[in-house]
Amino acid sequence: MNTECIFCKIIAGEIPSQVVHRDDNYIAFFDIEPKAALHLLICPIAHTNDFQQTPPEIIAGATSVIQNLAKKLNIENNYTLQINNGADSGQIVFHLHIHLLSSDKNGNKKAKALTI
Ligand code: AMP
Question: Strand, helix or coil at 38?
Fold first, then answer.
């Protein structure tokens, strides 16, 4: 855990968030300022600053988390993934996260129902 990191604090339960998925290695929660009807962030539990510094297997492991979430939310044909890497790209939180964005309002409702 990086004690300065806001997403580490979410993972530790020190800052509240709407979590829709958690396992030993990944967490997914609602973005606090959604840029689409549904906007989730998928993060590894282990802190890495950004995509550039993240071991490939951690990125690979996030794939099935995202695919399973998309199935559960019934948005398999309607989502976009985004990773901002580095301050110049617009990255503001330096704990790797993958944005999952969908225009599907039903997916949003389902995600709310999944909140744990
Ligand atoms: P990025 O620009 O890729 O670093 O995106 C960081 C994202 O984190 C932004 O979309 C923010 O809205 C989101 N964010 C910042 N603080 C929180 C928080 N406490 N809970 C959920 N999302 C957050």
Answer: strand
- CB of 93 within 6 A of ligand 1: the answer is yes
**Residue 4: partners with Cβ closer than 8 Å, 6 or more residues away:** none
Residue type, 42: I
CATH topology of domain 6-114: HIT family, subunit A (3.30.428)
Q: What is the pLDDT of residues 25-64, one digit of tens each?
A: 999 999 999 999 999 999 999 999 999 999 999 999 999 9
Amino acid in position 68: N
CA of 28 to the centre of ligand 1 (A): 12
Whether 31 is in the pocket of ligand 1, judged by its Cβ within 6 Å, is yes
Q: Which residues are catalytic?
A: 97
Beta-bridge partners for 27? 22, 43
